Amino acid sequence: MDLSTARRIGAAVNGLYSAVFFAREVAAELAAVGVTSPTPPGPGYFALRAAPMGAVGPGVVTATFHSFSPAAVAAAVPAVWSAARDGLDAGDVPGAPDVPGGARRTVAHRADRDHDRPPPQGSPPMNTESPVSPVPADAAAGPAAEGSPYGTPVMPGLGPDQDLVTRMGIRILEATPQRLVATMPVDGNRQPYGLLHGGASAVLAETLGSVGAALHAGEGRIAVGIELNATHHRSATSGLVTGTATPLQLGRTLASYEIVITDEQDRRVCTARLSCLIRDAG
Protein backbone atom coordinates (compact mmCIF):
# COMPACT_ATOMS: atom_id res chain seq x y z
CA MET A 1 0.00 0.00 0.00
CA ASP A 2 1.42 3.39 -0.97
CA LEU A 3 1.50 6.39 1.35
CA SER A 4 -1.26 8.24 -0.51
CA THR A 5 -3.68 5.32 -0.17
CA ALA A 6 -2.84 4.87 3.50
CA ARG A 7 -3.56 8.54 4.21
CA ARG A 8 -6.89 8.41 2.38
CA ILE A 9 -7.91 5.37 4.42
CA GLY A 10 -6.90 7.20 7.59
CA ALA A 11 -9.01 10.20 6.62
CA ALA A 12 -11.98 7.98 5.78
CA VAL A 13 -12.07 6.29 9.19
CA ASN A 14 -11.52 9.51 11.12
CA GLY A 15 -15.24 9.93 11.74
CA LEU A 16 -15.22 6.68 13.71
CA TYR A 17 -12.17 7.79 15.70
CA SER A 18 -13.79 11.12 16.52
CA ALA A 19 -17.10 9.59 17.58
CA VAL A 20 -15.32 7.21 19.96
CA PHE A 21 -12.70 9.40 21.60
CA PHE A 22 -14.32 12.86 21.71
CA ALA A 23 -17.98 12.03 22.39
CA ARG A 24 -19.76 13.16 25.56
CA GLU A 25 -21.67 9.90 25.61
CA VAL A 26 -18.43 7.94 25.85
CA ALA A 27 -17.25 10.19 28.70
CA ALA A 28 -20.51 9.47 30.55
CA GLU A 29 -20.11 5.72 30.10
CA LEU A 30 -16.53 5.87 31.40
CA ALA A 31 -17.53 7.99 34.39
CA ALA A 32 -20.20 5.43 35.27
CA VAL A 33 -17.52 2.78 35.77
CA GLY A 34 -15.21 5.10 37.66
CA VAL A 35 -12.87 6.17 34.84
CA THR A 36 -12.35 9.91 34.36
CA SER A 37 -10.48 12.20 31.97
CA PRO A 38 -11.29 10.59 28.60
CA THR A 39 -9.29 13.20 26.67
CA PRO A 40 -5.50 13.00 26.40
CA PRO A 41 -3.43 12.81 28.51
CA GLY A 42 -6.04 11.53 30.99
CA PRO A 43 -6.19 7.87 32.09
CA GLY A 44 -9.53 7.36 30.35
CA TYR A 45 -7.99 8.15 26.97
CA PHE A 46 -5.24 5.56 27.34
CA ALA A 47 -7.81 3.03 28.54
CA LEU A 48 -9.91 3.57 25.42
CA ARG A 49 -6.96 3.21 23.08
CA ALA A 50 -5.47 0.16 24.80
CA ALA A 51 -8.64 -1.71 25.83
CA PRO A 52 -8.80 -3.95 22.71
CA MET A 53 -5.46 -5.45 23.78
CA GLY A 54 -6.73 -6.37 27.25
CA ALA A 55 -5.39 -5.28 30.64
CA VAL A 56 -1.89 -4.66 29.32
CA GLY A 57 0.94 -2.79 31.00
CA PRO A 58 2.48 0.56 30.05
CA GLY A 59 5.24 -1.03 27.97
CA VAL A 60 2.77 -2.58 25.54
CA VAL A 61 0.79 0.64 25.25
CA THR A 62 3.79 2.87 24.49
CA ALA A 63 5.22 0.31 22.05
CA THR A 64 1.92 0.20 20.16
CA PHE A 65 1.14 3.93 20.21
CA HIS A 66 4.59 5.38 19.62
CA SER A 67 3.51 9.02 20.00
CA PHE A 68 2.27 8.56 23.58
CA SER A 69 4.41 9.97 26.37
CA PRO A 70 5.80 6.99 28.37
CA ALA A 71 5.52 8.98 31.61
CA ALA A 72 1.86 9.87 30.97
CA VAL A 73 1.01 6.27 30.08
CA ALA A 74 2.79 4.91 33.16
CA ALA A 75 0.78 7.29 35.36
CA ALA A 76 -2.47 5.85 34.00
CA VAL A 77 -1.77 2.22 33.09
CA PRO A 78 -2.23 -0.35 34.60
CA ALA A 79 -3.98 1.53 37.45
CA VAL A 80 -6.90 2.43 35.18
CA TRP A 81 -7.84 -1.23 34.78
CA SER A 82 -8.88 -1.41 38.44
CA ALA A 83 -10.72 1.92 38.44
CA ALA A 84 -14.25 0.50 38.30
CA ARG A 85 -16.17 0.82 41.55
CA ASP A 86 -16.55 -2.30 43.68
CA GLY A 87 -19.86 -4.03 43.18
CA LEU A 88 -20.62 -2.26 39.90
CA ASP A 89 -23.33 -4.00 37.95
CA ALA A 90 -23.78 -3.70 34.19
CA GLY A 91 -27.25 -2.31 34.86
CA ASP A 92 -25.67 0.71 36.56
CA VAL A 93 -24.13 1.88 33.30
CA PRO A 94 -26.21 4.43 31.36
CA GLY A 95 -27.96 2.70 28.48
CA ALA A 96 -26.58 -0.69 29.56
CA PRO A 97 -29.33 -2.76 27.87
CA ASP A 98 -28.26 -1.38 24.50
CA VAL A 99 -24.50 -1.37 25.00
CA PRO A 100 -23.78 -4.74 23.30
CA GLY A 101 -25.07 -3.61 19.92
CA GLY A 102 -26.64 -0.20 20.15
CA ALA A 103 -23.60 1.81 21.18
CA ARG A 104 -21.39 0.34 18.51
CA ARG A 105 -24.04 0.77 15.84
CA THR A 106 -24.47 4.41 16.90
CA VAL A 107 -20.75 5.05 16.42
CA ALA A 108 -20.75 3.35 13.03
CA HIS A 109 -23.80 5.33 11.97
CA ARG A 110 -22.16 8.63 12.94
CA ALA A 111 -18.97 7.74 11.11
CA ASP A 112 -20.85 6.90 7.92
CA ARG A 113 -22.98 10.02 8.10
CA ASP A 114 -19.94 12.21 8.75
CA HIS A 115 -18.53 11.17 5.39
CA ASP A 116 -21.77 11.59 3.44
CA ARG A 117 -22.40 7.89 3.12
CA PRO A 118 -25.64 6.33 4.35
CA PRO A 119 -25.40 3.45 6.83
CA PRO A 120 -25.27 0.07 5.05
CA GLN A 121 -28.71 -1.29 4.31
CA GLY A 122 -29.51 -4.78 5.46
CA SER A 123 -26.29 -5.17 7.40
CA PRO A 124 -26.22 -8.15 9.77
CA PRO A 125 -26.32 -7.35 13.50
CA MET A 126 -22.95 -6.72 15.10
CA ASN A 127 -23.55 -9.44 17.68
CA THR A 128 -26.17 -11.94 18.70
CA GLU A 129 -26.92 -10.38 22.08
CA SER A 130 -28.73 -7.37 20.66
CA PRO A 131 -29.80 -8.30 17.13
CA VAL A 132 -32.47 -5.63 16.75
CA SER A 133 -31.02 -2.71 18.72
CA PRO A 134 -32.10 0.40 16.78
CA VAL A 135 -29.85 3.36 16.23
CA PRO A 136 -30.95 5.80 18.98
CA ALA A 137 -33.12 8.65 17.76
CA ASP A 138 -30.63 11.26 18.92
CA ALA A 139 -27.83 9.76 16.85
CA ALA A 140 -29.00 11.75 13.84
CA ALA A 141 -28.98 15.01 15.80
CA GLY A 142 -26.19 17.12 17.21
CA PRO A 143 -22.91 18.37 15.76
CA ALA A 144 -22.00 15.24 13.79
CA ALA A 145 -25.17 15.57 11.71
CA GLU A 146 -24.08 19.10 10.84
CA GLY A 147 -20.76 17.92 9.45
CA SER A 148 -18.50 18.43 12.45
CA PRO A 149 -15.25 16.46 12.14
CA TYR A 150 -15.19 15.93 15.89
CA GLY A 151 -18.48 14.23 16.82
CA THR A 152 -19.68 15.70 20.12
CA PRO A 153 -16.49 16.86 21.83
CA VAL A 154 -15.67 16.76 25.52
CA MET A 155 -12.97 19.40 25.54
CA PRO A 156 -13.31 23.08 24.66
CA GLY A 157 -11.11 23.75 21.64
CA LEU A 158 -12.22 20.57 19.86
CA GLY A 159 -15.69 21.99 19.46
CA PRO A 160 -18.36 21.80 16.78
CA ASP A 161 -18.58 25.61 16.76
CA GLN A 162 -15.31 25.89 14.85
CA ASP A 163 -17.05 26.83 11.61
CA LEU A 164 -13.83 27.60 9.74
CA VAL A 165 -12.27 24.23 10.56
CA THR A 166 -15.42 22.41 9.45
CA ARG A 167 -15.80 24.48 6.29
CA MET A 168 -12.21 23.77 5.23
CA GLY A 169 -12.60 20.03 5.71
CA ILE A 170 -9.91 19.69 8.38
CA ARG A 171 -10.05 16.33 10.16
CA ILE A 172 -7.99 15.57 13.24
CA LEU A 173 -6.64 12.02 13.14
CA GLU A 174 -4.45 12.05 16.23
CA ALA A 175 -4.36 14.44 19.17
CA THR A 176 -2.06 14.33 22.17
CA PRO A 177 0.10 17.12 23.62
CA GLN A 178 3.15 15.39 22.11
CA ARG A 179 1.85 14.82 18.59
CA LEU A 180 -1.12 15.93 16.51
CA VAL A 181 -2.02 14.90 12.98
CA ALA A 182 -4.76 16.25 10.70
CA THR A 183 -5.64 16.21 7.03
CA MET A 184 -7.13 18.93 4.82
CA PRO A 185 -8.33 18.69 1.22
CA VAL A 186 -6.79 20.93 -1.40
CA ASP A 187 -10.15 21.07 -3.16
CA GLY A 188 -12.09 24.05 -1.85
CA ASN A 189 -8.97 25.64 -0.35
CA ARG A 190 -7.24 26.91 -3.51
CA GLN A 191 -6.10 30.40 -4.47
CA PRO A 192 -6.87 31.90 -7.93
CA TYR A 193 -3.97 30.06 -9.62
CA GLY A 194 -5.37 26.68 -8.61
CA LEU A 195 -2.82 26.05 -5.87
CA LEU A 196 -3.40 25.37 -2.20
CA HIS A 197 -3.91 28.75 -0.53
CA GLY A 198 -1.14 29.71 1.87
CA GLY A 199 -3.78 30.94 4.28
CA ALA A 200 -5.33 27.48 4.32
CA SER A 201 -1.99 26.00 5.37
CA ALA A 202 -1.83 28.62 8.12
CA VAL A 203 -5.30 27.65 9.36
CA LEU A 204 -4.33 23.97 9.44
CA ALA A 205 -1.13 24.82 11.32
CA GLU A 206 -2.82 27.04 13.89
CA THR A 207 -5.59 24.50 14.41
CA LEU A 208 -3.13 21.74 15.26
CA GLY A 209 -0.90 23.91 17.42
CA SER A 210 -3.83 25.42 19.30
CA VAL A 211 -5.41 22.05 20.04
CA GLY A 212 -2.05 20.70 21.22
CA ALA A 213 -1.53 23.69 23.50
CA ALA A 214 -5.06 23.34 24.89
CA LEU A 215 -4.50 19.66 25.63
CA HIS A 216 -1.24 20.54 27.37
CA ALA A 217 -2.92 23.33 29.36
CA GLY A 218 -5.56 20.97 30.77
CA GLU A 219 -8.91 21.64 32.37
CA GLY A 220 -9.56 25.10 33.75
CA ARG A 221 -7.00 26.77 31.49
CA ILE A 222 -7.11 28.03 27.91
CA ALA A 223 -4.53 28.47 25.16
CA VAL A 224 -4.53 31.54 22.90
CA GLY A 225 -2.33 31.85 19.82
CA ILE A 226 -0.03 34.88 19.97
CA GLU A 227 2.39 34.29 17.08
CA LEU A 228 2.27 32.25 13.88
CA ASN A 229 4.84 32.15 11.09
CA ALA A 230 4.87 29.91 8.04
CA THR A 231 7.24 29.15 5.17
CA HIS A 232 5.69 27.75 1.98
CA HIS A 233 8.09 25.37 0.22
CA ARG A 234 6.05 24.06 -2.69
CA SER A 235 2.53 24.03 -4.09
CA ALA A 236 -0.20 21.40 -3.89
CA THR A 237 -2.95 21.16 -6.49
CA SER A 238 -5.04 18.15 -5.51
CA GLY A 239 -5.67 15.45 -2.94
CA LEU A 240 -5.06 15.84 0.77
CA VAL A 241 -2.32 17.56 2.68
CA THR A 242 -1.33 16.28 6.11
CA GLY A 243 -0.24 18.44 9.03
CA THR A 244 1.86 17.02 11.86
CA ALA A 245 2.49 19.12 14.96
CA THR A 246 5.15 18.41 17.58
CA PRO A 247 6.05 20.59 20.58
CA LEU A 248 9.11 22.79 20.62
CA GLN A 249 8.47 23.87 24.20
CA LEU A 250 5.67 23.12 26.66
CA GLY A 251 5.67 25.38 29.68
CA ARG A 252 3.21 26.60 32.26
CA THR A 253 2.40 29.85 30.45
CA LEU A 254 3.70 29.31 26.92
CA ALA A 255 3.52 26.43 24.45
CA SER A 256 5.22 26.41 21.05
CA TYR A 257 4.69 23.89 18.26
CA GLU A 258 6.31 23.17 14.92
CA ILE A 259 3.83 22.10 12.27
CA VAL A 260 5.00 20.34 9.10
CA ILE A 261 2.52 20.07 6.22
CA THR A 262 3.17 17.49 3.48
CA ASP A 263 1.43 16.39 0.30
CA GLU A 264 0.34 12.88 -0.65
CA GLN A 265 3.87 12.09 -1.88
CA ASP A 266 5.21 13.06 1.56
CA ARG A 267 6.85 16.19 0.14
CA ARG A 268 7.03 19.17 2.48
CA VAL A 269 4.58 21.88 1.47
CA CYS A 270 4.86 24.18 4.47
CA THR A 271 6.70 24.55 7.76
CA ALA A 272 5.03 26.63 10.45
CA ARG A 273 5.59 27.55 14.07
CA LEU A 274 2.90 28.60 16.52
CA SER A 275 3.25 30.01 20.02
CA CYS A 276 0.29 30.02 22.39
CA LEU A 277 -0.19 31.86 25.67
CA ILE A 278 -1.67 29.66 28.39
CA ARG A 279 -3.78 31.28 31.07
CA ASP A 280 -6.57 30.49 33.48
CA ALA A 281 -10.05 30.38 32.00
CA GLY A 282 -12.50 33.15 32.84
Automatic annotation (TrEMBL):
InterPro entries: HotDog_dom_sf, HTH_67, PAAI_dom, Thioestr_dom
Keyword Hydrolase applies: yes
Listed Low complexity bias regions: 91-103, 129-149
Annotated spans, Disordered: 91-157
Gene Ontology CC terms: cytosol
Entry-linked Pfam families: 4HBT, HTH_67
Gene Ontology molecular function: 1,4-dihydroxy-2-naphthoyl-CoA thioesterase activity
Segments forming domain Thioesterase: 193-270
Ranges of Basic and acidic residues composition bias in the record: 109-118
Cited CDD domains: PaaI_thioesterase
Keywords associated with the record: Hydrolase
Similarity-based family: Belongs to the thioesterase PaaI family.
Name of this protein: Uncharacterized protein (TIGR00369 family)
Organism: Allostreptomyces psammosilenae
